[in-house]
Amino acid sequence: MDYDIFELLKLIGSLGVFLYGMKLMSESLQKLAGNKMRQILTAMTSNRITGVLTGIFITALIQSSSATTVMVVSFVNAGLLDLVGSIGVILGANVGTTVTSWLVAGLGLGEFSMSDLALPIIGCTLPLLFSKKRSRKNWGEMFIGFGLLFLALRFLQESMPTNLHDYPGVGDFIQKISNLGFRSWMIFLLIGAVLTTLFQSSSATVALTLVICSKGWIGYEDAAAMIMGENIGTTITANLAAAVANVQAKRAALAHFIINVFGVIWLFVIFTPFLHFIGDLSVALHLSRYNPIYSNPHLLNEAFSPEARAGVLASINAAMPLVLSLFNTLAKGINVTILIWFTKLLAKIVSRLIPPKAGEDSFKLKHIKIGMLSTPDASLFQAKQEISLYGQNTLEMYHKMVQAFHLPAGEYEKEFEKLQQLEDESDRVEVEIADYLTKVSESKLSTENSQRVRAMFKIVSEIESVADSVLNVAKAIYRRNEQNISFPEELSNKLQHMFSLVDESIVIMCSNLNMEYTQVNAKKAYEIEQAINDYRTILKQEHLLAVEEKRYDYSLGIIYSDMFSECEKIGDYTINVTQAIKEIGHEE
User: Fold this and answer.
1) Rounded CA separation 246/424 (Å)
2) Taking a C-beta distance cutoff of 8 angstroms, is the pair 205, 302 a contact?
3) What pTM value is reported for the model?
């Protein structure tokens, strides 16, 4: 019993390492995502054909469609691949994974495991974690996450029995459920799906299926059904990876599941004729001397004499691995040929099935596309639209922080994690807008547009500073909850008044960002900024007096002071944005 519990804990621990590796890799990719990396990946998946070829190549190289789809989920989660591009790669991964079965069947060799290189990868990149340069540290995290991903896949496989036929009674059980027609197909499809889910590798279960067939344990039809089940089971890995990812990544994982289920459905409709076709083709290609459909005892007895049956069956069993490899490759190839024309439709279906969550991916580029528009003026207009959206999303982040102020500690912790994620996304958007402006500045610009670009750089920097300060206020609230501190009603009311003033300053900033810059009136912005400064001065003086008179604990006073001081900084950043806009207006 102890041994069973230990094995179960090993499995759970392996799954934990797997999910952590995926999370580490995804987060580091988000930090590293720049124009060059994005353009390379975009080029690889620029159309449905190159996307499929990319999936085939990567999966054939690392011998694991599960690993490929997990990486695709990571790329989608990091924003490096769009949903339609990821579907093309997943289609290719389904075909690429059949290379393993050909290696096992043709050469009798075990599958190449990228996990052999996991520890060397981690060892080589470990020094990068201690680099003072942020970009090198991000690269180190990415490669270590990559190594942990493949290491965990090995752990998951080793946590499960690799040779089920060595266990007493299993062989007899398999023979009892074989050759029962449609019932056997369903049973073996389920077995294939379950085994692949446990192994976390369709390549491993396909190889096991080939070994079982070569020993004559199951027939051609049942083995083909088992492989079909393995094609469904392999989608579980990507869906596990997507469990900690964003909506787009969940959609990519669901698309993988739908692709493989569709392949099973149409194949079952023509299952018997298709198996006959594969059998005839294998004979024509000299992969087998006899059509493997004669592995069915009823057909074997009808077609061959008692003296010939043993020899025919032995020949079929010996050739079965190659025949099943042909079946697997053609079935997946036809599935890709059908679905490659419906990638956009499939993307719409999964988008409807998994709608976006409120507040998720708030900071997302909507106006800036890859590459600039035809003229600098048009590109700068596009940048202005994106900056306006950036400011509006920052205002929404601020509202989330204010709404969470009175939440109980347990509920606030969840909101705090969302605010941290939003601030990270804000950092990424700032970099992407700045990269776009850098590209625009490399064009031949008029003096006016050059000045506009410089002002826009300042604007996005100040907006990002607003998001930083919003998170700092949230951190102060988190410290308050952590130290089990309750603000007196008087202090809470004063903070709420400060929050209202700051809210108005951000609203004015967003209004100015949305207007024609030449029409911006800075009077309201200056008035509210002055009101924030005056109120901060009053709160500071009252706070110092209260500390001297010991009206509240010093630890409470520190958190209170941090909050209204950080709010005053937000007022400074918003007026800086308006000042930058006014400079543009005067220059025009």
Assistant:
1) 14
2) no
3) 0.52
Amino acid identity, residue 321? P
Phi, psi of 485 (to 5 degrees): -100, 135
pLDDT tens, 95-104? Answer: 887 876 776 5
Residue 204 makes CB contacts below 8 A (sequence gap 6+) with: 111, 157, 162
Of 25, 16, 19, 79, which is closest to residue 239 (Cα–Cα)?
Answer: 19
How many residues comprise the chain?
Answer: 588
Burial of 584 (0-12, 13-18, 19+ CB in 10 A): buried
For 470-517, the pLDDT digits (tens) are 999 999 999 888 888 888 888 889 999 999 999 999 999 998 888 877
CA gap 330, 324 in Å, rounded? 10
Helix, strand, or coil (residue 501): helix
- If 0-12 CB within 10 Å is exposed, 13-18 middle and 19+ buried, where does residue 542 land? middle
∠ CA 299-302-308, rounded to 5°: 95
Side chain identity, residue 86: S
Asked whether 557 and 467 are in contact (CB, 8 A), the reply is no
Residue 346 tokens, joined: 């499939």
CA-to-CA distance for 491 and 498, rounded, in angstroms?
A: 11
